[in-house]
Amino acid sequence: MTAKSTHNPNGIGRPWLALCFCLTVHVAEEAFTGFLPFYSDATRAVSELFPYVTSPSLVLAASMWLSVAFVATLTVLTPFAYRGASWMRVATIGVALIALANVSGHIGGSLLVGNALPGVYTTPLLAVVGVYALIFAWRWNPGDVEASAA
């Protein structure tokens, strides 16, 4: 019995696009549910408790635009993912790990404060897609796309 190939003529496009979509929905939820004011208050409280610990403070409008620009930049890379660019494997693994870290931060923070933090409602979707993309990228062989094009 032979091992099943992870041949995909579409490269890593579907998991990448799913990640981009989920990140877009998540950033929108954070924007509309007040994540940035919550984050600013939290960093201020940490700074008061631990004056020697520096924590990044976010300027509300600038950080929202940075989040939008980050997700837009990732989305612009989608054609490379569908073409099977080998470097997209590393990019997909990296973005999936960032998404999963974000999920753990939202869920952990919600458990810590005993209340749902802004942005927590889209974390299950982000978790599922993050795991899917991570597994797919880990198993994906960019050589399959090059072989199918020949």
In short:
The protein has helices spanning 13-33, 35-49, 60-76, 78-83, 87-113, 123-139, 142-149. With 150 residues, it is mainly alpha-helical. It has one domain (13-149).
List the helices and strands and how they pair.
Blueprint: H1 13-33, H2 35-49, H3 60-76, H4 78-83, H5 87-113, H6 123-139, H7 142-149
Helix pairs in contact: 1-3, 1-5, 1-6, 5-6
Number of helices: 7
Indicate the structural class: mainly alpha
Gap between N and C termini, in Å?
Answer: 27 Å
The domain tally reads 1
Q: How is the main sheet built?
A: none
Instruction: Name the shape in a single word.
Output: elongated
Q: What would you report as the Rg, rounded to the nearest angstrom?
A: 18 Å
Which features characterize this protein?
150 residues; mainly alpha; 7 helices; disordered N terminus
What do you see in this structure?
The chain is built from seven helices and no strands. The protein is an all-alpha fold. The protein has one domain (13-149). Helix 5 packs antiparallel against helix 6. Residues 1-7 have low confidence and may be disordered.
